[in-house]
Design goal:
The complex is a heterodimer of chains A (263) and B (259). With 263 residues, chain A is mainly α. Chain A contains 10 helices and no strands. Chain B has one domain. The chains are: A mainly alpha (263), B mainly alpha (259).
Chain lengths: 263, 259
């Protein structure tokens, strides 16, 4: 057996183990997801328009806010398990001793998160769009492009949360992650409003938003599914997405060596 | 007299322990959350969602303090759950004070601490976003009265949850209970809008304690007939607090009583 096939065998065994665990948790995850999705559909799709919000904003907000928050909360739960493990259980020590290169091991972490998030969030997003019905408005974009950005978005969250869980300690992560990392990312990342609407009101915010990786992913999701000139062009989004992913990989590498390298 | 002395000593102990985390809490819940929310929900949301109508902006913004308030109350009250599941330091306290008094002391402390951290939320909004949030008719004394009653009720509710739940159920608790209470508790949408959408849902939401906090906040900030009267909100919050505290005492005694 050559090295590649041996690594693949261990890698797929670890993934199969995660899938088995996911199977036990799936019903709970889907119920949680359905509740969040239903609440978002009710609030963004039906109640906020009663207060005067334009119905043209429903689809971009649903994609930008509801979907992103849902994936981020899945990522946060996943990351808190890793941070807790690094502090208390140290199951990571067993994983490190496996005859598997570190690159493969961390690819396994990322793949596992992407699989779990996709299995839970893709059907729920579809249900959300169906529940919104006419309020969601026309879909002028391409589903394939949407799926492509969607999986890159999952990859981003996987890299982001994995790097955070290896960079910050348990107490800091539990107390400050939402307030000091996630909320600023969302608020300055066009999650609640589209990039063009915000920059129309406050042009100087343009630079901050363009430095925020979330802007490219969220605008990319909107642009790919909804189409039209109201969002950042897809080419700009793709450039931003790949630069963000590159920086996340660098951040993850430094986090891993900081946490696991004893020298 | 002895009991009262021990009770105040426990209050002092909690103050000593949590003051060490005060810096972090102030930065997160008295500065970062309010400033981000003011920028996002008072400034941008009013202009983009509601085309600059400051009345609607004020209605929507008034409930947004719920998130930092609930997270703060959660982080203070749920230490009991971690203790019950692992260290059991509570066993020492149980030797010197009645279980009911321990629970009451913890709720009172958490409510005062939460309230203190939440104090700057609305003054900051007035300072930074007075053009988008109308504070001209605000009764500040009523605002802080309802904010304290709300803190008390939310802390009692979270204390009950900390006693009833186990560690594995925390995430589920946030998604299945707190998220619903929050989104349908007037975080953005006032009760009269929900009633216009569905009278049945509007009626059912009167069982949501958080709705009385947000309605009370809106009544104190904006006033008028659209929102529930302040006296109703305060009475409802106090009744809910008593119910949650009694249930907490009952379940706490059942959980720590090994016989």
């Amino acid at each position: 057996m050559n090295t590649f096939s041996r690594n693949s065998a261990i890698f797929s065994t670890l993934l199969a183990r995660d899938l088995k665990i996911l199977k036990q948790r799936l019903l709970n995850l889907i119920v949680d997801g359905l509740i969040v999705m239903f609440m978002n559909v009710l609030v963004f799709g039906y109640l906020l328009p009663l207060l005067g919000m334009s119905t043209t904003l429903i689809a971009p907000i649903f994609l930008g806010n509801s979907l992103s928050f849902f994936i981020a909360s899945l990522g946060y739960n996943c990351a808190i398990r890793i941070v807790y493990d690094l502090k208390f259980n140290r199951f990571i020590d067993y994983l490190i001793t496996l005859p598997l290169p570190k690159r493969w091991l961390f690819t396994y972490f990322i793949t596992s998160f992407i699989m779990e998030s996709a299995i839970v969030s893709l059907p729920l997003t579809t249900i959300g769009i169906l529940l919104l019905g006419k309020n969601f408005g026309p879909i002028n974009g391409s589903f394939i492009m949407f799926l492509m950005i969607y999986f890159l978005f999952l990859l981003f969250w996987a890299l982001f949360f994995l790097s955070c869980s290896f960079t910050y300690n348990f107490i800091w992560f539990r107390n400050n992650m939402w307030a000091r990392r996630l909320m600023p990312l969302f608020i300055f990342g066009s999650a609640f409003f589209t990039f063009k609407k915000v920059t129309l009101i406050m042009p100087m915010l343009r630079i901050i938003m363009l430095c925020n990786p979330l802007t490219y992913f969220i605008e990319g999701l909107r642009s790919s599914l909804l189409g039209g000139p109201d969002y950042l062009p897809l080419t700009t989004c793709f450039i931003g997405i790949f630069i963000s992913l590159f920086f996340m990989i660098l951040r993850l590498r430094s986090g891993i060596s900081q946490q696991l390298d004893p020298v | 007299m002895q009991t009262l002395y021990i009770f105040t000593q426990f209050l002092y102990r909690d103050l000593y322990v949590y003051t060490r985390q005060l810096g972090d809490h102030i930065i997160n819940y008295s500065l970062i959350y309010p400033l981000l929310y003011i920028f996002c929900f008072a400034y941008l949301q009013t202009q983009i969602y509601f085309l600059g109508q400051s009345t609607v902006g004020t209605i929507v913004f008034s409930g947004t303090c719920l998130v930092p308030l609930m997270v703060m109350a959660f982080s203070l009250t749920f230490d009991l759950l971690f203790d019950l599941e692992k260290n059991h330091h509570i066993d020492y306290q149980l030797m010197v004070l009645k279980p009911q008094l321990i629970i009451i002391e913890q709720i009172i402390f958490a409510s005062i601490f939460t309230f203190a951290v939440m104090i700057p939320f609305f003054p900051l909004a007035r300072f930074f976003a007075s053009a988008y949030i109308d504070f001209s008719t605000t009764s500040w004394s009523s605002l802080y009265l309802i904010l304290y009653c709300g803190s008390l009720c939310i802390c009692a509710y979270h204390k009950l949850a900390a006693i009833v739940l186990t560690l594995e159920k925390i995430n589920t608790f946030w998604t299945r209970v707190n998220h619903i209470l929050l989104m349908l508790g007037g975080f953005w949408i006032p009760l009269y809008t929900i009633q216009a959408f569905s009278p049945i849902l509007g009626f059912l939401l009167r069982l949501n304690p958080i709705m009385y906090l947000t309605e009370g906040l809106r009544q104190s900030i904006i006033g008028g007939k659209h929102f529930l009267p302040l006296s109703h909100c305060i009475i409802a919050l106090l009744i809910f607090t008593i119910i949650f505290t009694m249930l907490s005492c009952y379940f706490f005694k059942r959980r720590v009583d090994h016989i």
